[in-house]
Structure prediction request, 100 residues.
Amino acid sequence: MKMSNGTRYSEEFKAGAIKLVLENKQSIAEVCRNLGVSRNAMDRWLAAERDSHNDEKMKLRELEAEIKKLRKEKEDLEDTVEILNKAAAIFSQDQRKNTR
Prediction:
């Protein structure tokens, strides 16, 4: 099943080849030989697969950082509300004293 130079492989074919290496633990050389794919092409597909997972990890880290930031903002806002409630209570006591 040797393919000629410049042949485009479908995404399903690439995914299957990657699965053979990563999940079925076949050697890269063996998969390349059995599928008629160049080692260079297989290395590119595997690198792209790793990069796609790194993008997911990067996005996850970004989301975790955003959650941490938002939690800090929430705490700050809760502190502000507490201070404002205390100030309002103090001002309302002063108003009552002044109206007596």
